[in-house]
Amino acid sequence: MRGILVTIAIGCCIAAVSGNALVLAEAGRIPFPSGYRDWTHVKSGLIDDPAHPAFARYGGLHHIYANPKAMTGYRTGNFPDGAILVYDLHTLVPLPDGSIDQGERRHLDVMVKDSARFAETRGWGYEEFLASAPQTPTLTPKARAGCAACHAARRAHGDVFSEYRE
């Protein structure tokens, strides 16, 4: 009997999580990309100069991860539906020896390619998760449109800023 109750409880949890993902998908929202650190690490970057125009928003150490479909896009120049990119931004921690270490997460930005759901933004959907609420999508429709407008500058590269090097 206990095994049946555990199975029912697990089934209810899965249904609740699946239901949340479905509601997010229907609303054009993107769920947190669980397991993204197991994907391919595309590159890391550093913005550490307060004079840099993006410092206030993107200052720190960032890592970019790509799922297998996104890696197809990096290699072919054509990002297929199902491609997901993650931009994981962290604070900087200066160390006594003069080196810099990765600090706390500031936010995690996600791009998802789905030509049907995100037709108005060239097939890409955008979302952001703050360190203070890592499972809660935070971008407003206006902010997502701003992401798309900025990424449009990289149309020749599939609206993606980063480039992969073998």
Give structural notes:
The chain has 166 residues and is an alpha+beta fold. It has 2 domains: 1-31; 32-157, Cytochrome P460 (Chalcone isomerase, 3-Layer(bba) Sandwich). Helix content is 30%, strand content 28%. It is built from 4 helices and 5 strands. The protein has helices at 2-26, 55-58, 68-76, 141-151, and strands at residues 40-47, 60-66, 84-94, 100-113, 124-130. A 5-stranded antiparallel β-sheet has the order 1-2-3-4-5. The longest helix has 25 residues, at 2-26. It is globular and about 50 Å long. It starts with a helix and ends in a 15-residue tail after the last helix. 22% of the residues are buried.
CATH superfamily of the largest domain: Cytochrome P460
Mean pLDDT, to the nearest integer, reads 86
The shape is globular
Q: Please summarize the sheet with the most strands.
A: 5 strands, antiparallel
Could you tell me the CATH topology label of the largest domain: Chalcone isomerase
Strand order of the largest sheet: 1-2-3-4-5
Portion in beta strands: 25-35%
List the helices and strands and how they pair.
Blueprint lengths: L1 H25 L13 E8 L7 H4 L1 E7 L1 H9 L7 E11 L5 E14 L10 E7 L10 H11 L15
